[in-house]
Write a structure and sequence with these properties.
This protein is mostly helical. It has helices at about 5-30, 40, 55-65, 70-75, 80-110, 115-125, 125-155, 160-180, 185-205, 215-230, 235-260, 280-285, 295-305, 315-340, 340-350, 355-370, 375-410, 420-435, 440-465, 470-500, 500-530, and strands at about 275, 280. Helix 1 runs parallel beside helix 5 (about 80-110) and helix 3 crosses helix 11 (about 235-260). The model has no long low-confidence stretch (mean pLDDT about 90).
Length: about 550
Amino acid sequence: MSTTVMVVFGGIMLFIGYVFYGRYVAEKVLKLDANAKTPAHTMHDGVDYVPAPAPVLLGHHFASIAGAGPITGPVAAAVFGWVPVFLWVVIGSIFFGGVHDLTALVASVRHEGKSIGEIVRRHIGERGQLLFLGFSYLALVLVVAVFTILVVNTFVSVPAVATTSILFMVLAVAFGLAIYRYNVPLGVGTVVGVILLFLCVFIGVQFPLQASAKFWTYFTLVYIFVAATLPVWILLQPRDYLNSFLLYASLIGALLGLLIGNPSLQYPAFTSFKTSGGLLFPMLFVTVACGAISGFHSLVSSGTTAKQLANERDARMVGYGAMLIEGLLALVALATVAFLTKEGYTKTLAEMGGPTGLFAAGVGQFMNYYGVPVAFGTTFGALALNAFCLTSLDTATRLARYAWEEFFATRIPSLANKYLGTLITVLLAGALALSGKWSEIWPIFGSSNQLLAGLALLAVSVWLAKLGRDNRVTFYPMIFMVVATLTALVFLIRDNLVKGNLVLGIPGILLFVLAIFLVIEATNTLSRIKKSGPSVGA
């Protein structure tokens, strides 16, 4: 069997999942209505609520959720062998991640584009909302810290990426102004924008910017503060849309190389139940992270995406479809390991500075099969990856700001200020990022992120139960995710406390306690619904 066959077979399974299971969830469970008015229209404010064409929103959503997760996760989880990772990516994307993203998006759209926290408040209670917002805010601070470190590391190791990223920011503002203020047709703007996008890549390679890690850390923190407070149409939405073409190009470039080169599959199918990455259960399911399911996606779906959905029928393509594309990206990331030997995997990880470097090197090798120099392909892979780390970074900061505002809006209104909320988030995440300890933060981030997915599925399950809908599509995945991630969190808390690492041990304990109390609240609500029956208009 070749690496190409593995990726192609997995891609076919994902497509079948989109056609059949995605349609079932969208039409039979959620009952999407093309004639329903979405919050993007009914609550249009020109800042956060802005209707977007489906292709633009798909680009924004995909760019926001992709990041380094579906690349770093599968590469790191390969210590268990390629088969466990492959099975979890395919099964997880179809029955867990895709359902999670789609239902979170639609639930938010049906609740004025509000976050999952608001859905928890309405259907589980005020105390449940406090618990969920506290959990999601802590998880988002970890997301911002992790992605800041990844972005800075790439800026330092591949200076061309720094130049290109800064040029991307300028291009995005120009694109947003052209489309939304000067009414340039989307097709024309896209063609010109994509051409300029690749020109930015070329200029970046020719004129790399070199600076210290500390400088780039402060630069990135200032950038995300500005990006998280600007209207979405100025920077966030247009940059994510244009950046999606860069990731599509790298994805297609790698797939084309796989088809032409057809490299043999050399990596072991299975290594051991217990590895340097921990026990296969539960650590596989938190390490793969965004490659199969991610709680961060529910915050994107119910944070920025729901406020821009122009038509309910677009939800299946944007929510479910984007997750399956991410699953395909995770399979390509796995392929960059699968064509190596076990010894080659260990050596490349060390030489390239971790999973992201290994992925970039793999893309370079795949593109070399049709004549692209390995050095250029590797740089291109690193550029694409970093562009999406940056989009996930400023989206996560904006979502943390939403959670902050929502928490204080009705309790201490004077604190519900977007600038204050963003500043606190940036300071907390910046303190963690300046430690530079990516390898220590990632496991706790993965556990909190996957547990957040379980809690989002729990909230949606309660909402569907109140509507009298079949909630098994969310309820059973929720049970698995909560059990697996709480178990992983216990292991990680123990390990951090044994090492005396209180910076990560204490947040782990807080996340665990918040999750347990929220599960109890939701379980009581489900019991009441079972006794009293569904509610009209829920």
